Amino acid sequence: MKNFKHLIITILIFTSGLNLNSQGNLSIVITPGNPTIENNIKVKALAGFSTVSGYKTYELSWIDNNNLVVDIYCWVGMSSSPSSNIVYANIGNLPQGLYTVIANLKVNTSYQDFEDLSLYHKTNSDTIMFRVSETLNIEEDTKNDYGFSIYPNPTNNIITVEYSLKDKAVRELQITDVMGRIIATHNLKQNSTENNSITINLSDSPKGIYICTLKYENGMFSQKFIKH
């Protein structure tokens, strides 16, 4: 009977040790969400653990001109209380283009030496793609040779698009985000020599920079706007 009790205690301790070694999950976002060439860009990494953890450091390395790796180093303590770490890895200003960030979560569960980075092992990762756009000058005159204007700009939810493309067959109006994802599409009058307008509700879309494109018979014209 004594041996049996001893066996139970041993199993419980071993199982508890496995739970303490839970190594966390990583999720990342880019801040600001729709960066321009004037923004200081950061990777916001959230590392969640089922045990108490601590943040050690991070390292940045470029694979090439548009692909970046961020290694996040955290250590896991002996307490079983859940915890998380928020890490802001600074990228800085980037030129216009499409970028990919791969974030790796590296964890030390030795409970002995938290200074030696060689003891930290990759346990989770996340990847994000984002586009850096040129600066949007919202104070510029939004009128143009195509009679195309968007107001208000910036907007909270509703925009009105006016267009008067003389001698051009207007086909379609399309709203996309800076990643090229289509937010809304509207078929327009085929031929128009007078002012026309259309009102679009963007209440279901997040804050950010958007592109409104008028497509006509032989081409297209685009203009940016901001949703606050």
Q: Brief description of this entry?
A:
Helices cover 8% and strands 52% of the residues. With 228 residues, it is mainly beta.
Characterization of the model:
- The protein is mainly β.
- It folds into two domains: 2-132, no CATH class; 149-227, Immunoglobulin-like, CATH 2.60.40.
- It is 8% helix and 52% strand.
- It has one helix and 14 strands, in the order H-E-E-E-E-E-E-E-E-E-E-E-E-E-E.
- The strands form four sheets. Strands 3-4-6-7 form a four-stranded mixed beta sheet, with no helix packed on it. Strands 11-10-13-14 form a four-stranded antiparallel beta sheet, with no helix packed on it.
- Strand 8 (149-151) and strand 9 form a beta hairpin.
- It is elongated and about 75 Å long.
- Residues 1-21 and 137-143 have low confidence and may be disordered.
Provide key terms for this protein.
228 residues; single chain; 1 helix; Immunoglobulin-like; mainly beta; 2 domains
Task: Break the fold down into its secondary structure elements and pairings.
Elements: H1 2-20, E1 25-31, E2 41-49, E3 53-64, E4 67-76, E5 83-92, E6 97-108, E7 121-132, E8 149-151, E9 158-163, E10 170-177, E11 182-187, E12 196-201, E13 208-216, E14 219-227
Parallel strand pairs: 4-6
Antiparallel strand pairs: 1-2, 2-5, 3-4, 6-7, 8-9, 9-12, 10-11, 10-13, 13-14
